[in-house]
Specification:
The protein contains six helices and two strands, in the order E-H-H-H-H-H-H-E. The protein is mainly alpha-helical and about 130 residues long. It has one domain (about 35-130). The radius of gyration is 21 Å and the shape is globular.
């Protein structure tokens, strides 16, 4: 059974800013700037900066259109130019693009619920799972 408790929150904007700064951006920044370049270098001994520059056209198109699906063709060409096998590119890039769409849909739904809770007349809902005591 779920129990819903209310607590007042006078700084809804402050909470929203903290959500944007910490859980929404720091893990992604660490993943993109530290973990993935280190994995690329350790597994392939390729320079991460050179690989990033090789995928520049795909990244520019993806950020410009806000769509990884629209940039799929350019990304596949960049991967082939870097030296990836054709069969690998044709299988993994469309699969990754589809998985990215699912993750984005879940993230957007969660973000909308969070913002709605913060903006709900200065109150935040706190959900507790378990037995309710009467």
């Amino acid at each position: 059974m779920m129990t819903v408790m209310w607590r007042t929150n006078n700084s809804g904007t402050q909470t929203l800013k903290m959500y944007q700064l910490t859980p929404a951006s720091l893990p992604y920044s660490h993943q993109a700037c530290v973990v993935l370049p280190a994995a690329l270098w350790l597994l392939t001994r390729r320079n991460p900066w050179d690989t990033l520059c090789a995928f520049g056209p795909a990244l520019a198109l993806a950020f410009g259109t806000s769509s990884s699906s629209a940039a799929l063709g350019v990304t596949m060409q960049c991967a082939k130019d870097v030296g990836c096998e054709d069969a690998t590119v044709k299988f993994f890039l469309p699969l990754g693009t589809t998985c990215n769409m699912n993750g984005t849909a879940l993230y957007e739904a969660t973000t909308v619920l969070f913002i709605a809770q913060v903006r709900l007349e200065g109150c935040v809902r706190v959900f507790k799972w378990g037995r309710s005591r009467k």
